[in-house]
Amino acid sequence: MSVHRQSEELPAKPELDSQAQQVETATLAEDAEFKKREARVVAKLDLYICPILIILQLISFLDRGNIGFAATQGMITDLNLVGTQLNTAVSLFYPLYILSEFPAALIVKRVGFNRVIPAAAACWGLCCLGNGFARNFGDLVACRLLMGMFEGCLMPSLTLMLANWYKRDEIGLRISYLFISSAISSAFSGLIAYAILFMNGAAGYPGWRWLYIIEGSATVAIGAACYFIIPSSYTTAYFLNEDDRAVMRKRAEMTEAYNGGQGHYTRTEFTMAIKDVKTWVHAAIQVMFFAWGSIVYGVCGYLSDRFSRRFLACIVCAPLGVVGYAMLLGGNHLSVGVKYFACFLIATCAWTMGGANVAWLSTNTAPDGKRAASVGLTLALGNLGGIISGQIYPQTMAPAYTLGHAWSLGAICISFCLWWVLRHIYYRREALKGQILEGAVPRPADFSDRVPDYKYQH
Q1: Is 340 exposed, middle or buried (0-12, 13-18, 19+ CB in 10 A)?
Q2: Which of 198, 359, 360, 415 has the fewest C-beta atoms lying within 10 Å of its C-beta?
Q3: Which CATH fold topology does 48-254 show?
Q4: Are 65 and 189 contacting, i.e. CB atoms less than 8 angstroms apart?
Q5: Which has the closest alpha carbon to 342: 384, 293, 413, 284?
Q6: Reported CATH class of domain 262-458
Q7: Hey, how many other C-beta atoms are within 10 angstroms of the C-beta on 65?
Q8: Ramachandran angles phi, psi of 23, nearest 5°
Q9: Residues spanned by CATH 1.20.1250.20 within the chain?
Q10: How many CB atoms lie within 10 A of CB 300?
Q11: How far apart are CA 183 and CA 287, in angstroms?
Q12: DSSP summary character for residue 255
């Protein structure tokens, strides 16, 4: 009798199926609603976070590159520069730039993006401003060295800040914005310099000094403004409401394994980055380029996020750069229009090489401390190209620049090969992880990208 009553009290199987379907439908509805809310939040991030980072990247390239315009407007004569002193001043921007990138990547999250980024911008702006009052080669070198040190803090800070605010499948496009802004600065720096140089003679200063003074003052002002604009975290962001913060909290929980820390990095994480071969392969690739383009990488950044594929963007664009440099090397008889087309081919690959490489490393490295060390090391070694470029593109080799073009062509070829090496490394690690999962090996307490359930993006 009791058994019969219990069987009557149990829901019929169709009722169980109906309840399961209702739960599933409710879950799907909740997911769809969350995705809508998340899309609105991401749009806000794009509106409030990305523009200021783009502006900072743009002015950093303006400030480091204005030495070229100043040199053509009397700086060489006024400062009594002789021989290769101008090339030396150009190259000396990079030693401290390189040395500062790695420690900046390690400390920026602990100190705070809202502190490090504005301070760095204001300080290199002061150095740029100081160039406007330089009296000799020594003054110029001192300002260039210090400006390089402070600018070196920017790119790793911006990259890690984007990784802190965006998910893995969103970061590629946003990093591409930084590289695109660099190209935009190259496109408009000449126009800006041309306008400022009309002030030649104002207050007794030549135009090249006004170029440094105005651009440096603008950078200091922007750096000061960034202190109030850049939020310390999503919990204090002035442009997010409570619902937005709830979405950001959920996103943070979803990406906790990827981020794996709040800026308190350990020596173990640093050692993990140094010992991981993929850090060095990515860093080697980053060394290989210096000239960049923009529009193509914007498309590649979007597509690589959309399909979670980094390798194809790199491998498809690189041959175009090889063709472009080959045309310049063997094109003494070519028309100006054809050479201009070759430059477009080079730009097609150059940006993708840098940005996609950094995005690929960033999305495939965990925890947070290891990612910071890996990205900082890669960017630092990558900017060795800045030192090399000043020597392989000397004015004495104009207009052919055979040495520089040959170096660049070879660098792209080496990078092309190294990307295949990286692809093999990632697939091999995924295969090993599959074997470990089948063996039911417990996940280690210290999470990293080497644990079995961490999936690489290819």
Answers
A1: exposed
A2: 198
A3: Growth Hormone; Chain: A; (1.20.1250)
A4: yes
A5: 293
A6: mainly alpha
A7: 18
A8: -65, -45
A9: 48-254, 262-458
A10: 27
A11: 18
A12: T
Nearest to 113 by CA among 151, 160, 150: 160
At 427, list the tokens.
């697939």
pTM of the model as a whole? 0.64
| Six token digits for residue 215 | 């651009």
Count the residues in the chain: 458
Report which DSSP code applies to 72: I
- What backbone torsions phi and psi does residue 102 show, to the nearest 5 degrees? -65, -55
User: Would you state the pLDDT for residue 143?
Assistant: 96
> Are 85 and 137 within 8 A, CB to CB?
yes
Most confident segment among 98-107, 209-218, 379-388, 446-455: 209-218
- Cα dihedral across residues 226, 229, 231, 236: positive or negative: positive
The two tokens of residue 177 are 């914005």
The answer to whether the beta carbons of residues 399 and 188 sit under 8 Å apart is: no
Q: Which pair of structure tokens corresponds to residue 409? A: 């062509």
The stretches of 49-112 forming alpha helices (DSSP H) are 50-70, 76-78, 85-91, 94-111
Q: What is the mean pLDDT of the chain?
A: 79
Nearest Cα to Cα of residue 50 among 229, 304, 296: 229
How far apart CA 148 and CA 135 sit, in angstroms, is 19
Q: 290 falls in which pLDDT band (50, 70, 90)?
A: very low
Model pLDDT for residues 374-411, shown as the tens digit of each residue: 776 776 677 666 667 666 776 577 778 888 889 889 98
d(CA 408, CA 159): 25
Write out the two tokens for 2.
């009791």
Per-residue pLDDT tens digits for 13-24: 555 556 556 555
